[in-house]
Amino acid sequence: MSVFVEMFFFTFVVFCVLIDVIMEKALLLLKNFFGYDSFRTGQAELIKAILQGSDCLGIMPTGSGKSICYQIPALVLGGTTLVISPLISLMKDQVDNLNEMGISATFINSSLSSHDYMQTIENASLGMYNIIYVAPERFNSDLFLRLLSSIHIPLIAIDEAHCVSQWGHDFRPSYTEIASMIAKLEVRPIVAAFTATATKPVAKDIISCLHLVKPFTLTTGFDRKNLSFQVVHSKNKMYDLTTYLKKFSGHSGIIYCSTRKNVDLLYQELSKLGFSVSKYHAGMEDSEKRTSQNNFVYDKTTLMIATNAFGMGIDKSNVRFVIHFNMPKDLESYYQEAGRAGRDGLSSECILLFSRSDIVTNQFIISQGTPEIDRSIDYKKLNDMIDYCNTDQCLRRYILEYFGEIPKFQICHNCSNCNSDIEETDITVDAKKIMSCIKRMGSRYGTNLVTDVLKGSKSSKIQSLGFDTLSTYGILKEYSKDSIKELISFLMAQGYIICIGKQYPVLVLDAKANNVLFGTKTITMKRKIEKEASTKETSFSNLPFDSTLFEHLRTLRKKLAFINHVPPFVVFSDATLTQMATLYPTTKDDLLAISGVGSVKFERYGKEFMDCISTYLQEKEI
Ligand code: ADP
Fold it and tell me: What is the pLDDT of residue 84?
């Protein structure tokens, strides 16, 4: 062996041993500060890559624990790690969270007064912060740039990295400045980018726009196993909604509506019924929005009724359910909004109340809001969303496939399609009637008119077009209009009928419809036997923990949070309280063994929680 090879081999072995030692240290820090025993999927790999000096791109779903992937390296590397995030409203919670655990962190953004800004810059220049959160706009400030050149920055983490890509759904022009800002630094830090949503082209774009150098790239998939998905074809949404809310009583949840008007209306109705509600939409004053959001985040109200304007920047980990009162315009929005449930990893519910009028509302929103050249893309996405509401296959599978993932399972046992009783009916004859009606009408009309013809409507439009003389006129008159539309939606979801057209969607037949019309292909439709909302089990109501103790702990948490001016979930997450209400820890060692109890939090809150549990045990004589 040559001396050179020997040296190389020796260095390699030392490096491997060293990185193993460093990873052991990382694990200790995880336990000490965060109170967690092990890394979750993907975390150890990304942390290891960063600590080896490699740029990274981590694509991991919401709630999977991306923050720890840069927070732990920040602790190991020392100096000041910069975290670039577009979400100003989120920074305070994240910083509160870190400070609560004993990690020195701060944020620099436009919400600071000029006095606080100067003070923070001064402290930062003295190296007082291990982690600083900043919005990318900050790089336009000379003062801030001078700060960067005066301190040691081993790592820059870029959160919500998809914002740099014009192909992503949330492009922020200021993100495109990040790479040139990094290039100006005397010593280039390690750059680690994170996002929950990146298709392959977006991931490529992130790497190129941020100038990541041979990044270690890791995708852990989009699946959120703790979320249970339901689509409810609702005849009376208000009734279904209130039934669910009564079942979820006391738990935090978000209700999304597609319009401000609906938000205001629901807010009024639910307040009248005595529910504890906040509301949020873009038409409200900034101060009103802030109060409303804080009330929800600090558990002063349990329900948030909102348009899609609410959410970016919400890190509340104990949202137990998200109900969509209206179908959103695409699955990207749906998954992102529904994904705000269960960030703490506990079972949570995502329920979509669907009715056909949602389709019309969304078509209207697209026709008014989307520039003409992009409309066909939006209509296609809307059709995929409608198919999701009508599919009889596993909903989780449908979502994962939509995002380009090939799930390892056929059925997930945790969505309304997998868990429903299904009856299967042969609908070949009805399908033929619908298909031939579309053909006879010249494949030039949308669902409403086709339905009217099949139903045998006497409208003047149908008479003037001469459709009342077609052989398919009134051929499904025994069905309600809703049932006919449901059949059409189903045939669309199965790909026999396609909806084309930008402004005026038109139904046409796919070539495969010929196999039914002229061949021997039969079509069966699986119908869910819809259960009343009141008879359905919630996925989190029957968890095996002591719910009475949980309530005591929740009350204590709220009190301590109030005293310390932090949101309750920052004191301890629901997941941590659930474990306490299962294992009844009353000694230091037992409490430190609970996931989420680090040493600083133990010092800060341990005694009160142990006392609460001991008193409960004595009263119950357990
Ligand atoms: P993301 O940024 O991916 O949406 P977060 O970083 O906010 O997710 O983490 C979501 C939740 O999971 C937080 O409450 C966090 O403390 C918790 N978490 C992260 N990593 C772990 C871990 N290794 N063990 C247990 N809980 C974890």
Answer: 95
Q: Is the CB of 144 under 6 A from ligand 1?
A: no
At residue 86 the predicted structure's pLDDT band, cuts being 50, 70 and 90, is: confident
CA 429–ligand 1 middle distance (angstroms): 52
The helix or strand, by DSSP H or E, that contains position 64, with its residue range, turns out to be none
The pLDDT score that the predictor gives to residue 216 is 97
40 touches ligand 1 (CB under 6 Å): yes
Answer yes or no: is the C-beta of 44 below 6 A from any ligand 1 atom.
no
62 close to ligand 1 (CB < 6 Angstrom) = yes
Q: How confident is the model at residue 594 (pLDDT cuts 50, 70, 90)?
A: very high
Please answer whether residues 144 and 80 qualify as being in contact, where contact means their C-beta atoms are separated by less than 8 angstroms. Answer: no
Residue 415, amino acid = C
Query: Each residue of 211-265: pLDDT tens digit?
Result: 999 999 999 888 998 999 999 988 899 999 999 999 998 899 999 999 999 999 9
pLDDT at position 536 over 60: no
Cβ(333) to ligand 1 under 6 A?
no
Asked whether 66 lines ligand 1 (CB < 6 A), one says: yes
pTM: 0.76
| pLDDT of residue 376 exceeding 80 | no
pLDDT at residue 547, rounded to an integer: 87
Residues contacting residue 599 through CB under 8 Å, at least 6 positions apart: 32, 33, 102, 592
Say how many Å lie between the CA of residue 63 and the centre of ligand 1.
Answer: 6
| Ligand 1 atom 15, closest CA | 65
DSSP assignment of 245-258, as one string? HHHTTTSEEEEE-S
Q: Residue 65: CB within 6 Å of ligand 1?
A: yes
Exposure letters 33-65 (e unless 16+ CB within 10 A, then b)? bbbbeebeebbbbbbbbbbeebbbbbbbbbbbb
CA dist., res. 69 & res. 67, Å (int): 5
Distances (CA, A) of 374 to 296, 323, 367, 370, 605: 36, 29, 10, 6, 53
Mutational test site, ligand 1, from 33, 37, 40, max ligand atoms within 8 Å of CB: 40
pLDDT tens digits for 330-340?
Answer: 898 899 899 99
Calculated CA dihedral for residues 162, 165, 169, 170, nearest 10 degrees: 70
Residue 220 Cβ < 6 Å to ligand 1: no
